[in-house]
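I hope you will forgive my troubling you with a question about protein structure. Could you please explain, in whatever detail you think fit, how the structure tokens follow from the sequence? Thank you for your consideration; the sequence and its tokens are set out here.
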Amino acid sequence: MSARMAAAWALLPDYLAWHVLLSASALVLGVVISLPLAVAASRSARLRWPVLGMASLIQTIPSLALLALFYPLLLAISALSVRTLGVGFPALGFLPSLLALTLYSMLPILRNGVTGITGVDPALREAADGVGMTPRQKLLKVELPLAAPVIMAGVRTAAVWTIGAATLSTPVGQTSLGNYIFSGLQTENWVFVLFGCAASAALALVADQLLALVETAARQRSRALAIAGFAGLAAGVVLALLPLVSFGQPAAYVIGAKNFSEQYILAELMADRLQGAGARVQRKEDLGSAVAYRALAAGEIDAYVDYSGTLWTNVLKRPDNPGRRAVLGQLTTELKRRDGVLVLGSLGFENAYAFVMRPDRAAALHITSIADLAREAPQLNLGSDLEFLSRPEWKAVEGAYGLRFRSQRAYQPTFMYRALSGGEADVISAFSSDGRIAADHLVVLSDPRGAIPPYDAVVLISPKRAHDARLLAALQPLIGKIPVEAMRQANLTVDRDQAKATPAEAAAALRKQLGL
């Protein structure tokens, strides 16, 4: 427990700095956009409904979905910019998060702004007109000062919403306090989960109280309170951002990882190799499969580990299965030709999708293969990871065997295994290199029709790093060196062992075991 808490505290300066930068930037941008719109909407009833309606509509979109939607949009715009102007921009991480959170912050500011301005006593407006004030003077000297407390209440709400939603920016490659939560959920590191939640809540409370001071200043017309509130906010932001100022040189290399334990371990192993060669390294974890590959092809991450079956079906859109050697060879050729991506080679193990069951349940139903499973599927419940049911691999298996389950439910991988052990799921789409299969004595169902393609773990290098001698020299010794047994054991130490290891500790143990 103490080791995990120490690890959490060690990561806090970097995570907090990025979280504050993202939240503060989104909130400021939200205020800058929303206040003029609120003024315009307060002047025109015809404009008011569509403005508030659009802001309300944005709130109905789940914040994680809104964050994710901006990434492909920005990626397409960046690609267009490169083709037309010769210059692109990063579409992963900060920018999509900033735009999504800005939109998410606007409703309370808009609504309170319109309410505050339209709620000003008409007699005061008439008095302002009577003394000859221009519309601009009336707005700045009468309406906005009187509406300021209501507007600040909206800003407070927006600040709390934005800080909370910023934790969801991790899957689009933005470092935040959400890194604790996403990685903690996957590795069952509840210290990280609670630490991330507590840090985010504390940050929201501090921001809310400082903004409350500004709101009180607006109500009491107190310049001293306003200065104190804004000074506190400015000081807090500056202090939080110090780690980025002190250590914020651009990372020489960016290593990506998807959202499960094996990926965290392999990312740590690659980062360690590069750091040992004297390079600076940044990690972007918890990426979805499509996001990770697009980010690599666009040069926003430099290297990560993917799986040949995923690339074969999701990237090349191939429904066939010509065999392991053919898949790997064609992937190497096609990814280089199409996207300039270098397949450095296989790490030496496969992590394939595999349908698994508890041994007692499989024995009771006489199921040893997916063909047997198809016979009993209408009375069984399927559990999968968050991606599988939308992937081509599932369509291929479903079509090859005619699988029709009583119910299908997606889980975060850790809870998928718990659903199987607890009986909520009868069969799950597991990962063949997962140590929990052996630890729980689960039965892996055979695939007699070869519907599931091979899933060799391969190191991918971005086009801009394809000839980077230091990167290639650091990662080449990993190729062909990791047997599946070693990977399963490393995964198990993070996922299930009593004395749970962090991904960094598991990577260090794996490196020592492999003699690297």
About this structure: The longest helix spans residues 2-43.
